Amino acid sequence: SSVRLNLGVPFGMIAQRQRNQRVDAAIDAMRSRFGNFTIPMGPSSRKVLKALAENFVVLILGDQSGPKEAVFVDFFGRPAATHRGAAAFSLKTGAPIVMGFLVRQSNGTYTMALEEVDRSGLDAPDNEENIIELTKRHTAILERWIRMHPDHWLWMHKRWKHPEYFEQHQPMEEEA
User: Most buried among 76, 88, 136, 171, using CB within 10 Å?
Assistant: First the structure.
């Protein structure tokens, strides 16, 4: 997205690069308007870890579909491929996951609501079960906010785009 946000401190934003280099440059210029910086999606782990170690805020869009190798957690009653990065970075560095939601006001302005994801009981950084659990927790918060403000979301991409997952995880039919 072309976020123009001034939090008072610079932040890094993980973002997918656009195919068109001019469009990508224009979007990046808007994102970096207040000293913020873009971390290209893909092999971004070192840049994210460096930013977190330097006490930067790192923005990750949590409603995007993950790759088919992602963590599948329930989202509106269906398993959805969900990026594991937020949970993995949080558990590895101790950085909290704070969900941010812009809520439109009747006068046309927005307020930002922030909600920290509960990490209690999840301290082991390389534990896959903890990554899955923390991913479930932040996905549940996202779902709750969408239910509270459904008019604020318009997805132009396929959130449940990996049908092979459903084919592999169908319940076995019992023989009569």
Answer: 88
